[in-house]
Amino acid sequence: MSLKDSLKELYQSIFKAHYSPIAGGILLALFVILLEMWYRPWGIVGGLRNWGEWILYGIGFLEEAPPHPLWFSSSVLNIGLILGAFISATMAQEFGLRIPPKLEIIKGIVAGILMGIGSALAQGCNIGGFYMAIANLSASGIAMMVGLIAGVFIGVKYLLWEIERFASTGGVEISTKKINPILGIVGLIVLFAGVSCYFGSEREEGALLGGALLITAGIGFVMHRSRFCIVNSFREPFLSGEASMARGVAISILIATLGIMFIKLAGIREPMTYVTPTFVWGALIGGVIFGAAMVVAGGCGSGSLWRVAEGQVKLMIVVVFFALTNAILRYYLDNVWEVWDKGWLGTAVYLPDLLGYAGAFILLAVIILLWYIIVDWNEKTEKFVIGL
Amino acid sequence: MVDLSTIKADEVLDCKGLSCPMPMLKTKKALQKLSSGQILEVLGTDPGSKNDIPKMCEKEGYEFLGMIDEPGYTRFFIRKK
Predict the structure, then answer these.
(1) Most exposed residue of A28, A123, A178, B63, measured as fewest CB within 10 angstroms of its CB?
(2) Residue of chain A minimizing CA distance to B16
């Protein structure tokens, strides 16, 4: 084999092949740990809300202008994720504008609104409220996990009901396959120009944002290459029994939790970072609503964003309604009803305060491993499968 | 090997524009309605389907015959055993 063939093979395996959920999960966890060490915890909803607030400001609902999206860290994280996933999709020639049938558009609107509500109550989607909440040793992460499982069960019931009654066809794809590699190079140029602008900027947080943009582009890239999907990990055990994504998510959370525990132990981040006053009601109720909606949407917080980046129009609709609803509801929850101070939706519980760091990690690891063991067993026995 | 370009499917299922998990659910439902030996052709645009459909066939005991990329969509062929 010549060096050229060898390089070609390497290119194929990095840019064209789909990574396994386990590989995707491990790489994701490493990027997540790196991001929290470098700057801040990973999140999705904060950035979406910022975009939603700009729309609300534009129509006069909000009087004060929200922070600039290019200088607001949560928003930069989402831009990085979308860019990374876009580069992945285009380099693999998987990008194309996919326009769904009418029923899917309606489902996208309804699911987007419900995801906005659920993520407002839980102060985060499945990332900030579940994956990162557990990794940051917050009790709310476990409450949301319970809520998500219940919600996903409801969502699966709906899908099975729908599939018996409606046969929606008539979607199309506007294919851009031929120009995809060019789009990929444009994406790469935008990414590196963006990173170097941030690092070259005189503003204090410039370098931090530049690094965050690059790391979240890595997150977007590995999520898209592995089609890493938390909806799939909760849904398939009910729908087909298939558990490979659930195993990938479980391993990813376990590694991220271990890494971030050390970040907090070392005092790099405040202990209460990502520990929100949502235990137990906000996380639980928010989880049920968000869980049901993400099944109907076909994407969670992060999964919707990387699907937007590969051209899925349904998920673009989801993200718009998700962002708007979250921004409106959080405006009322935070400023008008002041629910967090009143503790209506729960309190902030940092597990190490109750159990110590070792105890907190063991508790979370046991819960995650229990989930792993159950879905793995269910794959063989199909005990919980309610699918077709 | 079956020559996919000349294959005649008994049923064609249009999943264009749909995203996960709808193509998978519709494919499974359509396969349930076929009688054994019949061939289903699925038209899809979701990149995930290229992994998911063969994997589902293996798990559920259907014979995955292969796929062809056309401009703007992919054709998947499945035989019910």
Answers:
(1) A178
(2) A171
The answer to whether the beta carbons of residues A116 and A322 sit under 8 Å apart is: yes
State both tokens at B36: 């054994």
**For residue A83, how many C-alpha atoms fall within 13 Å in the half-sphere facing its CB?**
24
What is the model's pLDDT at position A169?
A: 85
Give how far Cα A273 sits from Cα of A40, A234, A383, Å. Answer: 9, 26, 38
- Mean of the per-residue pLDDT values for chain A? 96
In this prediction the ipTM stands at: 0.92
Asked if A98 has any chain B CB less than 8 Å from its own CB, the reply is: yes
- Chain B residues 60-79 within an 8 A CB cutoff of chain A: 71-73
A330 pLDDT tier (thresholds 50, 70, 90): very high
Q: Is residue A319 within 8 Å of A308, Cβ to Cβ?
A: yes
Any B CB within 8 A of A196 CB: no
pTM for the full predicted model: 0.96
Q: What part of A 136-165 touches B (C-beta under 8 Å)?
A: 159-160, 163-164
Span A155-182, pLDDT tens digits: 999 999 999 998 888 899 998 888 999 9
Residue A298 half-sphere exposure toward CB, CA atoms < 13 A? 28
Is any Cβ of chain A less than 8 angstroms from the Cβ of B58? no
Q: How far is A373 from chain B (nearest CA, A)?
A: 20
Please list the residues that pair with A150 across neighbouring strands.
none
Task: Report the C-alpha gap between A104 and A171 in whole angstroms.
Answer: 9
